[in-house]
From TrEMBL:
InterPro entries assigned: BRCT_dom_sf (IPR036420), Ribonucl_H (IPR013520), RNaseH-like_sf (IPR012337), RNaseH_sf (IPR036397)
Residue ranges occupied by any Exonuclease domain in the UniProt entry: 40-206
Pfam families cross-referenced by the UniProt entry: RNase_T (PF00929)
Keywords on record: Exonuclease, Hydrolase, Nuclease
SMART domains: EXOIII
GO molecular function: 3'-5' exonuclease activity; nucleic acid binding
Organism: Marmoricola endophyticus
Origin superkingdom: Bacteria
GO cellular component, one term: cytosol
Official protein name in the record: Exonuclease domain-containing protein
Length: 445
């Protein structure tokens, strides 16, 4: 279904305000499909020049999706924003300096943003991040308001409604069966988040577990905005953002969730900061400030970072082998976190899988009837590997979703089979690892 975009020439209209409390009693949205009363949720997503508004990072794109109390999408709007500075990591969000030249400023959009939020429950994936940015942008624009905090966070609630999903939006969507297109675009991410919200609403008990938060958000005090709203032209991005292919972005999908939602909120910002494999001095200082704002003491961070490195090492070893490239990435992460390189060795020794049989906890083990695939030029002839595999009761063939493992001369192989396996989250291992797995099946130590 194509989402109806709000026309800025016939904007959200009709807000009536209580002169005593300045709270919205009723708000309406005019879309291409007519007017609907807003009393549900406003899902927000932002693309930004960086991660730290205190260091003058700004919003470069905003999207809002309007969702009813039962989870139905009622409308949406999105636009690029002229940040008045460089646009930041174009290689991640896909927005260029040329595109924002004619885009409205946040100050010009502030009345529309307020009207889109007032009287509704505000939702975001890592709400502390997005609403924190809105807080600073409202302050800069002198709009006289801040958004309700912390808002309904779909990242926080994912551990309640989803099994085994990482904190990342795309992984939560995959676990919930929600489509996620145009990752790292504001409208793409907000639309995906609205799908997560619908999934939660369909499975939540009554009364909703976030009822108190919704009441606080919907009764939040907002200033009166002009009616009709000032006219301003939306500017849309010209292309979809590139999909980041950073090792950390891929491997962090396999990390366990933290029981503390504040720690998860911090780790989400940390992972975003490390996507370019570099932490500047001001980023390090701001990460400490983020941790402090979340109530995480500075002396806790070293232990938290060491635990995070352990989790990365375990995730890297899920396929039974750590390649030279993966080891290089682990060393780089350790350096960025201010941890000595020897901790990588310790983490890998601590998490090295013991392939002792099909029930080995935490290891990649084979069982009779598993499907295996061979790809590339192997040191042992492929027919010999296939004969050994068949003799162990394994099935050889092409890559399907139920394939247990793909064997390649180099686990970083870019062959079609290896690429397809990665798209299905199927491990790609080398011949030595596969031989150990076969020995484990046969009880050979």
């Amino acid at each position: 279904m194509r989402l109806p975009l709000v026309s800025i020439l016939s904007p959200i209209a009709g807000g009536t305000f209580d002169s005593d409390t300045d709270r919205t009693k009723s708000t309406y949205l005019r879309t291409e499909e007519g007017s609907v009363q807003l009393s549900g949720y406003t899902v927000i997503d932002l693309e930004t020049t960086g991660l730290f508004p205190k260091k003058h990072d700004r919003v470069v794109e905003i999207a809002m999706v309007f969702v009813s109390d039962t989870g139905e999408v009622q409308g949406s709007w999105s636009t690029l924003i002229n940040p008045g500075r460089d646009v930041g990591p174009t290689h991640i969000h896909g927005i260029t300096a040329r595109e924002v030249l004619r885009a409205p400023t946040f100050q010009q959009l502030a009345p529309l943003i307020i009207r889109s939020i007032a009287g509704r429950t505000v939702v975001a994936h890592n709400a502390r991040f997005d609403l924190g940015f809105l807080d600073y942008e409202f302050d800069r624009s002198q709009a006289g308001t801040v958004p309700p905090s912390p808002g309904l966070c779909t990242m926080q609630w994912s551990s309640h409604f989803l099994s085994g999903a990482s904190r990342k939006l795309r992984d939560c969507c995959a676990a919930a069966g929600v489509s996620h297109h145009d990752e790292h675009s504001a409208l793409g991410d907000a639309t995906a988040t609205s799908g997560l919200l619908r999934y939660y609403l369909q499975r939540a008990e009554t009364p909703l577990p976030w009822s108190r938060l919704s009441t606080s958000s919907r009764s939040h005090r907002w200033p009166v905005v002009p009616d009709p709203l000032p006219e301003v032209s939306f500017v849309q991005r010209s292309s979809s953002p590139p999909r980041p292919d950073a090792w950390l972005d891929r491997i962090s999908s396999h990390l366990p969730r933290n029981d503390d939602p504040l720690v998860d909120a911090y780790l989400d910002v940390l992972e975003k900061a490390m996507l370019d494999r570099y932490l500047s001095a001001h980023e390090e200082a701001e990460l400490i400030a983020v941790a402090t704002s979340l109530g995480l003491a500075r002396d806790q961070l070293s232990a938290l970072h060491a635990s995070y490195l352990d989790s990365l090492a375990a995730a890297a070893l899920e396929d039974g082998v750590v390649t030279a490239a993966e080891r290089e990435e682990l060393d780089a992460v350790a350096a960025m976190l201010g941890l000595p390189r020897r901790l990588v060795d310790i983490a890998l020794r601590r998490t090295t899988p013991r392939l002792s049989g099909p029930t080995s906890s935490g290891s990649l083990a084979l069982q009779h009837g598993d499907r295996v695939v061979f790809t590339g030029t192997l040191s042992t002839p492929r027919q010999d590997w296939e004969a050994r595999a068949a003799g162990a009761g394994l099935i050889c063939g092409g890559v399907t979703r139920d394939t247990r493992v793909v064997v390649a001369a180099d686990p970083d192989s870019q062959s079609g089979k290896a690429a397809k396996a990665r798209s299905y989250n199927i491990p790609v291992v080398n011949e030595t690892t596969f031989s150990r797995m076969l020995d484990a099946m046969n009880g050979v130590s």
